[in-house]
Amino acid sequence: MTPHSAEFTDVIVVGGGAAGLGLAHRLTETGDATVTVIEPPDGPQRPPERTWCYWGEGVDGLEEVVDATWFFLRLHGADGRPVTVDPAPFTYRMVRSTDYERLVHGHLARSEGGRLLRATAEAVRDVPGGAEVRCTLPGGWSLTLRARRVFDSRPPRSLPPARTRLLQHFRGWFVRTDTARFDPAVADLMDFRVPQPAHGLAFGYVLPLTAHRALVEYTEFSAGRLTTEAYESALGRYCRDTLGLGAFTVERTEQGAIPMTDARFPRRAGSAVFRVGTAGGATRPATGYTFAAVQRQSRAVADWLRRPHGNAPAPHGRRALAMDAILLRALDTGRIDGPSFFTDLFRHVPAERVLRFLDGATSLREEWGIGLRTPVLPMLRTAVGLPFVPRRSEHATRNGEDHR
Known about the structure:
CATH superfamily of the largest domain: FAD/NAD(P)-binding domain
Helix content: 25-40%
Distance between the termini: 39 Å
Structural class: alpha/beta
Radius of gyration: 21 Å
Order of helices and strands: EHEEEEEEHEEEEEEEEEHEEHHHHHHE
Shape: globular
Largest sheet: 7 strands, mixed
Low-confidence stretches: 396-401
Mean pLDDT: 92
């Protein structure tokens, strides 16, 4: 390999997933800085096409890449009783990763200070006056880029020490049925009419695209992934026995795992190196949703870069993280029944308030009211004991970005 001389830009974004592209999108919109996005070249390092879902309100700048929208949300309790809610003013929205990439890559191409570099980032470190990223180009050449600030969105190789560590792991089928089986206006967020594991919880997830097509997933909150055969078996039973789809064709699959943990993710890796996305704590610990949080984080970072001081903005508030830590511990210890907890939450609290709560946008008074709708004594017992639970380190395999 022959090294190239160092090149300079204001901001380098490492990684082209939801977090990296989201930040690049916001920075190219403002035009306040030159931006270089480093994405892996075509090949095994690039993740397959995936979907990201979030709830949004009004116009958010992503209209041209929203592939589907649902106006109603539904949960099925383990007893089979459905809970259908209207989350207005929110709607539930799906974005395909390929469409989002096309949007942001187009912004970069049209921006005077934007650049997309296909290369493998080998090392990121502080240097006098900023930071540098050493890359390997597809032909084997090496290249060093320098910037005032580097934002690294690559998933962490291992998770920080935590008191509770679960995974939200799933496999999904994009199915086409022979007859109309789906209501395109209703998204099934959690369908607990599936066999529950001995530890954790499991549910179906159905996002209708048309009356004949839908993304159908089997999801677990538990300590470890299943085999592909086990996911496929669970999906087959769910489609056949629970949904009663009849004859259908699987057009495409997707699979992933999302960390659900109270680990403290450092948002700074150096004086001029910052972490965003899951590596920077954007994944909501109690739900695994990430896409909406990285959009908020991207806007906050873009604003912060105009007048930088202290650390980059946190994606979630301390109060929200504290409540998530209690819920995760209560689920992990079995003190609360997961299916009943989530179903009752939507059954007894207005959906709009639940979604604002999950976004960390509720007031202390609203959160107190939501807390009273949960199993109070088990949650209090968990809260009292949580400070005495030690944080333990555990090596985790690299987690790919997901659609939630």
